[in-house]
Amino acid sequence: MESLGSIALFVLVTETRSFTLAGKRLGISSSGVGKSVGRLEE
């Protein structure tokens, strides 16, 4: 089961339609956002 934070991050990506913008809002890199979303896909 994924953490609530990872799911919330995914929701933010879908709302912003951007890994970069989601990352900026959370203070993490777009690469970090992509890795987190990738882990959800596994």
UniProtKB/TrEMBL annotation:
Pfam short name (any one): HTH_1
Domain of life: Bacteria
Ranges where the HTH lysR-type domain occurs: 1-42
GO MF annotation, one: DNA-binding transcription factor activity
InterPro entries: LysR_HTH_N, WH-like_DNA-bd_sf, WH_DNA-bd_sf
This protein's name: HTH lysR-type domain-containing protein
Protein species of origin: Pseudomonas syringae pv. maculicola
